[in-house]
Amino acid sequence: MTTYDLSTTPLREVNTALHAEGLSGAHVITRPAGAHNVAVGVDAPVKITIEGHVGYYAAGMNQQAEITVHGNAGTGVAENMMSGTVHVTGSASQSAGATGRGGMLIVDGDAAARCGISMKGIDIVIGGSVGHMSAFMAQRGRLVIRGDAGEALGDSIYEARIYLRGTARSLGADCVEKEMREEHLEELAGLLKAAGHEDDDLTAYRRYGSARTLYHFTHDNEY
Amino acid sequence: MTLSAEERAQRGLRESATFDRTTIAAIQRAAETGIYDIRGWGAKRALPHFDDLLFLGASMSRYPLEGYRERCGTEVVLGARHAKYPVTIDIPVTVAGMSFGALGANAKEAIGRAVSAVGTSSTTGDGGMTPEERGHSKTLVYQYLPNRYGMDPDDLRRADAIEIVLGQGAKPGGGGMLLGQKVSERVAGMRDLPAGIDQRSASRHPDWTGPDDLTIKIAELREITDWEKPIYVKVGASRVYYDVKLAVHAGADVVVVDGMQGGTAATQEVFIEHVGIPTLAAVPQAVQALQELGVHKKPDGVQLIVSGGIRNGADVAKCLALGADAVAVGTAALIALGDNHPRHAAAYEALGSAAGCYDDFQDGQDPAGITTQDPELQAALDPVEGGRLLANYLRVLTMEAQTIARACGKAHVTHLEPEDMVAVSLEAAAMARVPLAGTSWIPGVTA
Fold it and tell me: Are A186 and A169 in contact, with CB atoms under 8 Å apart?
């Protein structure tokens, strides 16, 4: 196991080390003190543990790695993730999992506005609630919210699926509730299990997705 | 029977200057369809432009370089401020970002072949990097746009530079559009969207909103790529002075300023013609910002690339003289590939347009095979021949700029300076901040 103390080691050195060819094993980053861009651009099947709060874009563009943040994460945690998993034990700020194309983001606490914005295949499981405009223009992937959602959930959503246990303050343009069929219950069960919430009552969740009325320009759909 | 202009004049018929026939047709189109007009190309209205500037060739007080013998350098280094591997281009003309999706694969390949032949760079667009594009472009700039379609860290690492796009001259403040006709299975697959739907790109980045955030975003991209690549920031010309200052403060190595004549594949007509400022007005503002920050024309400074309506070597030379380090061409590159060529006249007319007027890049029915995803239409563009034509055009731009630079006594095209020029209109003098010809008067600067 390799340990990096961010209070004494420059971030650039830590990230460069995490980009080493053939990287393996477990890596621990201590005393991040809210630093931005911690463990970004990693492309290796390694375990990275961050002991403390991180700033913007932690684990950004992750590929393969299993990254755990023991604390809260700032804006854009796991943005554009391609694969692997990122687990935040606290809460996440805005744009968690933004534009992610694969892998799984788990946030045990809440996530702020724009969670899953423009997501493109990532799976996101939020233990608590999400802020406004979450899943805005969400293209692919699944967003599970165990709490409530703020205003305009799923605005201009494409083919991503949202599972919500609580209530949404409002749904965004073209986002509608959809039937929860057997395959969706199975999908939801798998996502919850992967995030450590296998005991949740699946029937308490509702599914939301695109009404697909904005897919072609007409005089009726210009917001 | 349609009356000729002369017949109308003989009958005393007078068209309204306010409601001319183009305006009347636009009102009728809006009434019939109930939706705004979407088209490609850039602003078509007359604007103060580089034509209103002239060079003061050398004579007694300055002496020129020999036109064919003395060296006049054209190479430019971009992004040496922070990047481990700055970009060196052999000529001061690059090809602007145009997406795979907006353009077909043959057009992207032709552009790649051309830039590699002349030693300059091409740029991806909103839609990701194709293997063909990477393969054919020796130097490729990877755009990082609000929608992040096809955004892949492996492509970031494969790129020679990264361009964060905040806007473009045709539509500062607006997002892109790609109508369903052009969203083929391949295009849709690269963008993680269903095929055949109208794609609206966001106008803001999803994970940052202001200059302070941009600072962190630039740092992230540097960290991901181990500080190897220059980071460009592209803005559509509007509040250029402030935007350039903020971009430099945020850490940009290169700033790209795109004036309102800059093209687009698809945007609302009202946006193209009424938002943004002319390229001529944008360049001095950008240069002032760089000068005040002490990063203009310095080896470890910030370089300026200007685009929007660059057509010939004189435009290139005028841009450089105003303080740009390089220019980018988009619309002109497409024209060099065959866009709006008279040989397609019949096909354009069948589409309700005409050679010289065709701007429906959004429809995907381009007879020249450039702005289309239809394999049959794309066959009209041979990428090898297209690459040859565009390379020729880029060479001509460079030779023309060198011709002017030598005439002004400059051993490198980037040595041209505002002092080498005068303006022939008050507007151009005020915007470009050079004297009105025959006077020492710069409106707004000198008394």
Answer: no
Report the gap between the CA of B151 and the closest CA in chain A (Å): 8
CATH classification of the domain holding B130? 3.20.20.70
Give the pLDDT of residue A32: 98
Following CA atoms B231, B237, B242, B245 in sequence, which dihedral angle do they give, to the nearest 10 degrees?
20
Can you list the domains of chain A with their CATH numbers? 2-210 (2.160.20.60)
Cβ contact, residue pair B35, A219, below 8 Å: yes
Q: Which domain holds residue B86?
A: 50-432
Domain assignment of residue B174, yes or no: yes
Q: Would the CB atoms of B208 and A61 count as touching at under 8 Å?
A: no
Q: Provide the pairing of β-strand B76-78 with B87-89.
A: antiparallel
CA distance B233 to B256: 6
Selected residue of A37, A54, A123 to mutate for chain B interface (largest B Cβ count, 10 A):
A37
Region B203-219: what's the mean pLDDT? 96
CA-based torsion, B437, B439, B443, B446: positive or negative = positive
Please name which of B174, B84, B165 lies closest in space to residue B124, comparing C-alpha atoms: B165
Interface mutation target, options A6, A11, A40, chain B, most CBs of B under 10 Å:
A40
Beta-bridged to residue B89, according to DSSP, are B76
In a domain, residue B74? The reply is yes
B126 pLDDT above the threshold of 90: no
Q: Residue B192 is nearest to which of A41, A95, A121, comparing CB atoms?
A: A121
- The interface pTM score, or ipTM, of the predicted complex is 0.96
pLDDT digits (tens, 9 = 90+) for B354-383: 999 999 999 999 999 999 999 999 999 999
Q: Does B153 sit within 8 Å of A217, measured CB to CB?
A: no
Residue B2, domain member (yes or no): no
How far is the C-alpha of A73 from the C-alpha of A94, rounded, in Å?
9
Provide the pLDDT confidence category of residue A223 given band limits of 50, 70 and 90: very low
pLDDT band at A221; cut points 50, 70, 90: low
Q: How many domains, in total, are found in chain B?
A: 1
Token code pair at residue A35 = 């630093």
Give the residue ranges of DSSP H helices in B204-344: 211-224, 240-250, 269-274, 279-292, 313-322, 331-337
Contact B46, B392 (CB under 8 A): no
Q: B53: which strand partners?
A: B423
Residue B20 located in a structural domain? no
Q: Distance from B204 to chain A by nearest Cα, in Å?
A: 11
